[in-house]
Design goal:
Largest sheet: 2 strands, antiparallel
Strand order of the largest sheet: 1-2
Shape: elongated
Helix content: 40-55%
Number of helices: 7
Order of helices and strands: HHHHEHHHE
Length: about 160
């Protein structure tokens, strides 16, 4: 039974929504990726500013943290996040390191095939729509019959168990 669930590509009977991955494994993958990306951001912050976290220029004005250095760091972090997610989805069998750790991957919804670079970029930016209303687009996986979030629906993707090797 387990091998049957893991055989997706080229096997249309296993492409149904009952085999899509639910919220728990997705959340675990996001947490792992978040820790990895935060670690990289911390190293970049340390390399740029000699400290592990951004500090306000004026301790009496906490808003002074939002200076040019802050926006430079956010730009670098955002760029790295885009390259990481899109690159892993397209060139690493549809899975970031977090998804690989929990043995899941992103595929096209219609045929279970790998996603292309355009879909990957669209999916990444669709995350914004899933984040904005209190993460409702991500939580949607819990209630959706197909276990797909808003970003999945927008880009016609889904998350499935990775194939057994």
């Amino acid at each position: 039974m387990q091998d049957e669930l893991l055989d997706f590509e080229g096997n249309p009977e296993n492409l149904g929504p009952e085999n899509n991955v639910g919220f728990g494994l997705r959340l675990a993958a996001i947490i792992i990726d978040g820790i990895l990306l935060w670690s990289v951001q911390a190293v970049i912050t340390y390399a740029m500013f000699g400290t592990w976290t951004m500090q306000p220029e004026d301790p009496m004005d906490p808003m002074s943290i939002f200076g040019p250095d802050y926006y430079t760091l956010m730009g670098i972090s955002t760029f790295f996040g885009i390259v990481y997610h899109v690159g892993m989805w397209v060139y690493a069998d549809g899975a970031t390191l977090g998804k690989k750790a929990v043995k899941i991957k992103v595929v096209r919804n219609d045929d279970g095939g790998p996603i292309g670079i355009g879909t990957a970029i669209g999916r990444y930016f669709s995350y914004i729509l899933s984040y904005i209303p209190c993460f409702l687009g991500f939580l949607w996986v819990i209630w959706d019959n197909e276990k797909r979030g808003w970003h999945d629906k927008i880009c016609n993707t889904k998350v499935v168990p990775a194939e057994a090797k």
